[in-house]
Amino acid sequence: MKERILIVEDDRNISKLLKYNLENSGYECIAAFNAEKALQVIDESPVDLLILDIMLPGMDGLDLCRAIKGTESSKTLPIIIVTARGEEVDKIVGLELGADDYIVKPFSPRELLLRIRAVLKRSEKEKPKNSVLTAGDICIDTDRHKVTVKGKSFELTHMEFKLLFLLIERRGRVQSRDQLLRDVWEMEAGVDTRTVDTHIKRLREKLGRYGDLIETVRGFGYRLNDDGR
Description:
The structure is a single chain. The protein has about 230 residues and is an alpha/beta fold. It contains eight helices and twelve strands. The chain is globular, with a radius of gyration of 18 Å. The strands form three sheets. The protein has a five-stranded parallel β-sheet, with helices on both faces.
């Protein structure tokens, strides 16, 4: 069965070009020209990946990303933002909201295809063998996509959830920023980005005093303390 990709792009020429290239590469594509139509498509029939422009009429792409990631039935839907907005702050916001990748226009169709394949591949193998992991009082249930501390639930974005799971899975072992970029975001090592630090900060804030379990190893990266606190 072909993987279904929803293209949310208000420029019909760009949408048509994307659809043409993706269908020639074996994907089934659906086009939506605004956020409202995109939500309708997602509600009516499942899609495997969303290609999303930020500058849309009405609800913009970032608000749409937030809405999708905040809905139980669609929060694991992979999203690639494709936009002309290339400022670092826009990238950080998009990734914080749960986007799996961020591509700036103009872009190479071949690059987009490679990114799509990487995101879809990661999505397929994302479900870990152990459905429940714990670290001290933190419990992460991957089947239910839920994090609790002493029974209290914490709402995390898709990327925050992935980051916390990886840190718990590799508890006690230091993870460099480059390792986290590769394994959580599948970005090349050496990319000049504050994405990791920003997500760690947000994760600590959400976990409150339990955020102290995530330790900073100066000049290298982070690790999750495994002393059972």
